[in-house]
Amino acid sequence: MMYDQILVRFGDLTLKGKNQKDFLKALYKLFDVKMEGLKVDVEYRHDRIFIHLNDEDVNKVLERLGYISGISSYSLVVKCTNDLNDIKETSYKLMKDVVSEKETTFKVNTKRCFKDYPLTSVEITKHVSGYVLSNHKLLKVDVHNPEVELNIEVRNDAAYLFNTNIRALGGYPVGTAGKGLLMLSGGIDSPVAGFLAMKQGIEIECIHFESTPLTSIESAQKVVDLVKKMAKYAPQNKINLHMIPFKEIHVALLENVPESYNITIMRRMMYRIATKLAEKKGILCLVNGESVGQVASQTLGSMNTINNVTNYPILRPLCTYDKQDIISISKKIDCYDLSIKPFEDCCTVYVPKAPATHPHINKAELYEKTFDYETMVNWAVDNVNSITISTDSDLELPLLGLEVREVIQELKKR
Ligand code: ATP
Ligand code: MG
Q1: Which of 275, 347, 348, 385 maximizes ligand 1 atoms within 8 Å of its Cβ, making it the mutation to test the pocket?
Q2: Fold held by 5-167
Q3: Of 174, 235, 310, 409, which has the maximum CB count within 10 A?
Q4: pLDDT one-digit tens code per residue, 228-270
Q5: Residue nearest ligand 1's atom 26 by CA
Q6: CATH architecture assignment, domain 179-413
Q7: What are the extents of the domains in the chain?
């Protein structure tokens, strides 16, 4: 392949003034972090970024680009001078590289960003397509439905030639929108919700409610492994994970609350704890993987009763997503195989036979009066076990039979 650079576009910035400056600063920083260890050079301009490949494996670079939010598209490009003869010759060589086997239709598109250039874009297109056609026997022009396009961008200092325009992650650079606390279970949905939040510019920390040894330590390991996958999209390739000791509350619910309200009240406890932790950390919203109608606790009636314990904003990136769409994103971010590992978590152990689909707020409040949940909620927040997981973290929780809190404290002593 002839390409020696990647041209990265971040689209029309609808952001203005200081926001735009912050956006660019965050984006440049993301590039620095994500391209680390590759032998590329990144050239920052106010309206685009060029990655000089320096013979680096292009697939490796493209993989890293896939972890950067806030870019709209990119193209593999060849750079030459803006001299017409050089553009003609380079165009011919590029087309020879791209089309070498069968007869192919093509079209030239020219964009002239250098307004004092002696030729118009239509003239450049004519010169180049004439030259390429007369030298390349397999090419034919088709301006309406070409199989290959040759795009030429003529700028003040150079010309750039490329064939494809590939859609990138889009959204905003992660971090520019502030922070959210992701409620992360071991399932399919919540990592996808976390990814979508990051893509929209929200840096995440994760909160997980763990009930070891009622639930297996493998289910907590799964969460650690999922955070590691998500860290590829994070600003510094790492994410804070807050493990909340939830066993005591879990047991209290099983002992005191009618079975049909168990999940409703469990989720009200989760919202209370997550809100308190977010407030403590100065995090401005909660994010979760709820999707309307998916399970009993996600009917609008349930969501109303559960949401009633907090006035924090709760983002539900998946609320209107169909499961198949969620699964395809889960596969794309490489979380699916982990998510479907069959370890139970606190929502899947002791599943009530007939959970309330329209729980009443009054009843939920009444059942909550049967035990001193406020003390338990505060204790859980105060006894959180926080760890930072990075893309190269090798944290293993091997001590079967122990509780997660003991394992983490043990690991921290080392
Ligand atoms: P997922 O596939 O992510 O597990 P789900 O469809 O199984 O979601 P629920 O178990 O009802 O749905 O949970 C809904 C959301 O509540 C999850 O997406 C997640 O954001 C949050 N949640 C559930 N269990 C936990 C947990 N143990 N710790 C933290 N958050 C949780
Ligand atoms: Mg779940």
Answers
A1: 347
A2: VC0802-like (3.30.2130)
A3: 174
A4: 999 999 999 999 999 999 999 999 999 999 999 999 999 999 9
A5: 185
A6: 3-Layer(aba) Sandwich (3.40)
A7: 5-167, 179-413
